Amino acid sequence: MKPLCKSKRSTRSTQKGFTLIELIIVIAIIAVLAGAIFVALDPARRLHESRNARRSSDITNILDAVIKYQVDNEGTHYSTIAALTAGNYYTIGTCSSGGDSGCTAQTTQAACVDLSGIGSNYLGVVPKDPSTGTDAKTDYYLKKDSNGSITVGACDSEGEGAGGSGTAPTLELTR
């Protein structure tokens, strides 16, 4: 008597892996989810918000440095600030003229106010606007009031809508 032969198993049914159709479906699902997350996060808006946050931090640092200098010098303003005409806005920077161009938040005077010599104890480096600032024109402004109060602000804050649209926040501090 011959032993009974077992039927041959198909080699196709024992192979493991994904079919091409299954891989395409999974990739399509991942692409749809990635697209939805990208739109929900709105990276352009996040960039505008982060630059505005940097501007806010910069104007706080500038104002803190000016006030600390004044406190350490018994109420006397830094020499370039003391020489400013009260009530006028000045672009912060090293330019000797042309400071009035480009500041959308305030109309500034033609001369800039140079804070680069205030000292590293107060302000290591004069901050510049993260988008358009240079050493000559930082795109920040300063105003001294007749009572000695100092106002520092950002010239060009960005709206937080797509592409910088929308109403831009006013970034300004007074002490």
Your description of this structure?
The chain is α+β, with helices and mostly antiparallel strands and 175 residues long. The protein has one domain. The protein has helices at 11-14, 20-41, 43-72, 79-82; strands spanning 89-92, 112-113, 140-144, 150-154, 172-174. A five-stranded mixed beta sheet has the order 2-1-3-4-5. It is elongated and about 115 Å long. The N and C termini lie far apart (108 Å). 26% of the residues are buried.
Task: Summarize the structure in short.
By secondary structure, this protein is an alpha+beta fold.
Number of extended strands: 5
Strand portion, in percent?
5-15%
Which sequence of SSEs, written as H and E, runs from N to C? Answer: HHHHEEEEE
The overall average pLDDT, rounded, is 88
Distinctive features:
alpha+beta; 175 residues; 5-stranded mixed beta sheet
Strand and helix layout:
Elements: H1 11-14, H2 20-41, H3 43-72, H4 79-82, E1 89-92, E2 112-113, E3 140-144, E4 150-154, E5 172-174
Parallel strand pairs: 1-2
Antiparallel strand pairs: 1-3, 3-4, 4-5
